[in-house]
């Protein structure tokens, strides 16, 4: 196959531009170079950028890319933790991923909806008028996650869990004290869970054997060995942390309800399917997880471009969800675009693409949808509210976005 020159961004390093441009960084380069494949430099390293559907398919080709050593250290030390499923490849990854996927049965999803309703009712019973959507959903989802995973907790400790789990994803992109606080919380939470896993294994903690804490404590890897208590703790946090992170989607969902009131009317009058389209458009339109990282497994040529072994490669999730080649008027909020929409594994990728079982696609995608469905249902049908005057702005470089919506319960 013939060689083509990959467009290369000139300059020593573009990390500052990334911090400034945030979610637009990759799309800006795609537009500047008129190319969905380009090269730039970040944190002193040569990096390939990919935007688009075919490019996503390439990124998920296990023969071409690996996840080992791809996530930057600061992301591992806050968001992911070391030794978790995100950094595994091949057989080891599939084996561990199976564990995650086995947790996402219909029964689980139904239970999640019941827990969400119960916890929202509990919180709303103690709410006078003003409700901070982000904070409230963080509390609700923390309680849901702890119960679902079977983690024993004392009522008085719930607010500590809320703060700590929240810090693990809120401050990934920050530098300085906020980053260090997130690292401190990760170490603390991992240590506490490690001790719990050890007690479960030794039979010193009586836990529900149908719950995730028990499953992960007793899980054996592809070689038939228990996970180290630390890695078991990392994986339990891989369930707790993102469940609480769905509060970000709830926050932007309320922003959409305020900015597109006609959509709320549609959901009220047309029911479930309109609600479903609204949730999908919230996940497509608003930014959350900006891009994914992998490394080139062996040097290869794709569409004439050479990808060099070992080089870091980023797939733009936000840009692919706003790619005009896939989405008509991508910068319009339009839930009706999902009417007769044909789902494909690589065009709509807010939580990653490809196959759940084989690849790294988010195993929590169905669970995320259930958390959002039940929350939307409660606030559309059961809890009347108004929006007081507020900004609700989203900065392009605030990762994750922080509209911090407030509502008044009537
Ligand atoms: C707030 C909503 C969520 C978003 C935006 C999100 C996004 C993502 C993304 C982008 C990935 C990476 C996919 C890849 O590397 O190819 C991922 C992976 C993952 N997510 Fe989620 N996620 C969410 C909710 C959840 C939930 C609720 C859970 C579990 C309860 C979860 C558990 C995981 C795990 C364990 C992985 C690693 C999978 C692997 O490496 O094979 N996520 N998620």
Name the average pLDDT: 95
Query: Quick one: CATH class?
Result: Mainly Alpha
Beta content: 5-15%
* Order of helix and strand elements from N to C terminus: HHEEHEHHHEHHHHHHHEEEEHHEE
Strand line-up in the sheet with most strands: 1-2-8-5-3
Query: Any low-confidence stretches, pLDDT <50, length ≥5?
Result: none
What's the tally of helices? Answer: 15
Q: Report how far the terminal alpha carbons are from each other.
A: 66 Å
**Global outline:** globular
Task: Write down how many β-strands occur, each being a DSSP E stretch of 2 or more residues.
Answer: 10
Alpha-carbon Rg, integer: 21 Å
Q: The CATH topology is what?
A: Cytochrome p450
- Sheet of most strands: 5 strands, mixed
Identify every distinct bound molecule in the structure, by name, code or SMILES.
protoporphyrin IX containing FE
How many distinct domains? 1
- Helix percent reads 40-55%
Family: Belongs to the cytochrome P450 family.
Keywords: Heme, Iron, Metal-binding, Monooxygenase, Oxidoreductase
Protein name: Cytochrome P450
Cofactor: heme
Written overview of the protein:
- The chain has helices at residues 15-21, 25-33, 53-59, 73-80, 90-102, 106-125, 133-149, 158-170, 177-201, 212-218, 229-259, 261-270, 272-285, 317-320, 365-382; strands at 37-42, 45-50, 65-66, 130-132, 291-296, 300-302, 305-307, 312-316, 385-386, 406-409.
- It is α+β, with helices and mostly antiparallel strands and 410 residues long.
- The chain has one domain (15-409): Cytochrome p450, CATH 1.10.630.
- A hairpin with a 2-residue loop joins strand 6 and strand 7 (305-307).
- Helix 6 packs across helix 15, helix 8 (158-170) packs across helix 9 (177-201) and helix 11 runs parallel beside helix 15 (365-382).
- Bound molecules: protoporphyrin IX containing FE.
- The site of protoporphyrin IX containing FE has 26 residues, from helix 5, helix 11 and helix 15.
- Its cofactor is heme.
- Belongs to the cytochrome P450 family.
């Amino acid at each position: 196959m013939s060689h083509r020159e990959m467009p290369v961004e000139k300059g020593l390093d573009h990390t500052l531009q990334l911090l400034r441009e945030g979610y637009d960084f990759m799309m800006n380069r795609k537009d500047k170079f008129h190319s969905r494949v380009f090269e730039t430099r970040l944190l002193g390293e040569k990096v390939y950028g990919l935007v688009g559907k075919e490019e996503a398919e390439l990124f998920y080709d296990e023969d071409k890319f690996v996840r080992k050593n791809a996530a930057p250290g600061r992301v591992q030390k806050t968001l992911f933790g070391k030794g978790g499923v995100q950094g595994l490849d091949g057989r080891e990854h599939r084996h561990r991923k199976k564990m995650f996927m086995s947790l996402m049965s219909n029964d689980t999803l139904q239970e999640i909806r019941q827990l969400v309703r119960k916890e929202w009712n509990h919180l709303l019973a103690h709410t006078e008028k003003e409700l901070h959507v982000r904070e409230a959903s963080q509390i609700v989802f923390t309680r849901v996650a702890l119960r679902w995973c079977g983690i024993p907790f004392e009522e008085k400790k719930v607010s500590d869990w809320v703060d700590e789990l929240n810090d693990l994803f809120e401050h990934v992109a920050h530098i300085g004290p906020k980053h260090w606080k997130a690292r401190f919380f990760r170490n603390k939470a991992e240590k506490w869970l490690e001790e719990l896993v050890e007690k479960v294994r030794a039979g010193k903690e009586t836990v529900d054997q149908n719950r995730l804490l028990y499953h992960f404590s007793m899980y054996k890897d592809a070689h038939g060995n228990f996970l180290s208590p630390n890695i078991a703790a990392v994986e339990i946090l891989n369930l707790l942390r993102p469940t609480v992170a769905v509060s970000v989607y709830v926050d932007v969902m309320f922003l959409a309800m305020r900015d597109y009131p006609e959509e709320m009317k549609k959901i009220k009058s047309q029911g479930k399917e309109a609600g479903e389209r609204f949730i999908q458009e919230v996940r497509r339109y608003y930014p959350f997880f900006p891009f994914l990282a992998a490394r080139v497994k062996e040097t290869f040529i794709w569409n004439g471009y050479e990808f060099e072994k070992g080089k870091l490669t980023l797939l733009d999730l936000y840009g692919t969800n706003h790619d005009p080649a896939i989405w008509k008027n991508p910068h319009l909020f339009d839930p009706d675009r999902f009417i007769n929409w044909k789902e494909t594994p690589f065009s709509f990728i807010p939580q990653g693409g490809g196959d759940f079982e084989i690849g790294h696609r988010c195993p929590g995608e169905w669970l995320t949808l259930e958390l959002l469905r039940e929350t939307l249902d409660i606030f559309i049908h059961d809890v009347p509210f108004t929006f007081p005057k507020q900004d609700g702005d989203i900065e392009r470089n605030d990762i994750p976005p922080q509209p911090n919506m407030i509502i008044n319960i009537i």
